[in-house]
Amino acid sequence: MKALALFSGGLDSMLAIKLISSQGIEVKALNINIGFGGTSDKSELMTKRAAMAGASFEMIDVRNAYLQEVLFNPQYGYGKHFNPCIDCHAFMFKTALSMLKDENASFIITGEVVGQRPMSQRNDAMAKVKKLALDEEDLILRPMCAKNLPLTKPEREGWVDREKLENISGRSRKRQLELAAKFGFEDFESPGGGCLLTLESFSNKIKDFIKFDKNMQVNDAQLLKYGRHLRLPNGSKMIVGRNELENQFLKELKTQKYEELKLFDLIGAYSLVDENINPQDLELALSIALTYAKTQNNTKYKIGFKDKIFQSMAFEDKNKIQEYFIN
Length: 327
What we know:
With 327 residues, this protein is α/β, with parallel strands linked by helices. Helix content is 35%, strand content 17%.
């Protein structure tokens, strides 16, 4: 017997795996990468945590499909910000269910707990997820709260011993911490969600992007994670790196929609602007780029855009730039 687990790297998903792997069932942990789970690659850490719980690990890249099928047209709408939680969960389950045959697995598990999250982990929300995911055979099992839910096929068929599953509900973490101590889990993600779509600042960046460009691609979405994002007076977009690591990410993620502002011999932040930026916004962008470089006041510097070289001066006061930030 084999199960596929939706795996976030958090304690609940580790415990769910342990409850199943302890029954002699092979488990493969899947991290469904929708593209909005944070700004760092945690695959190595997740592999380690999955192994601690008794599972192998694989990251599944569904970023393009998620943009096309879920983010901008969720059947059950959004949460407080740009988070289509019910549709998102259903999409992840549907992805995992479609993998069962190729993985020679029989059912899906998840670390969800009834009542833990207000939008996606209510009883009625779980029913909507089941419907959207096309789980007609009752193959989705939630080991952490199974005793609070109707029997699933793995329980009915005797693949899983229901008596060895949990009946946790609500937002208290007491039982989870007891189980963590029992199983010797010390390294696990803090319970904070981690989805950028639930953050107002990130949601505003998405809303601003689609106001000017309806065709968001995977790299467009990834670019939103890094740097200072500015919307200039005439509608042009500018992105300025905040540190050396972000500068590198921006370079790697640059698309044909953007052009670099070249600082030549100056030391400063990596800056991108719209490829078709208008002249007025370009003039402002040149000054902003120099403001985030090592420059002196009242001094003009060379700065490049495409095949042209301009002379420009940095702002003396960075606060002048604040009004252009997308926040």
